[in-house]
Amino acid sequence: MLATIVRLRPGRIARCVTDHRTIPFSYDEDAMRLNVSRCTAVERGERMIATILTHTLLPVVNREFLARTLTGSAVNGVPLAVANGDFDYQLE
Length: 92
What we know:
By secondary structure, the chain is an alpha+beta fold. The longest helix is centred in the middle third of the chain and has 27 residues, at 45-71. It contains 3 helices and 3 strands. A 3-stranded mixed sheet has the order 1-2-3. It has helices at 2-21, 29-37, 45-71, and strands spanning 25-27, 78-83, 86-89.
């Protein structure tokens, strides 16, 4: 069940980013493992995954997107990975 939740929540975020910003969003297996490792209560898995992504991923992506919009730079993709034990956002 948790494995399904782990795939659904980032999938929803990917669709939202793609639909609203027309920017591809992707994530690798390490990013999903890191997210699951931060969940401390299995019975609240989906809510914790959503909270981690909403409060960790989206603010950084939104700030970068707005900064690039203000400077006229394009964002062509948002690949999510892991580097140095934390989420790594390399907006393209």
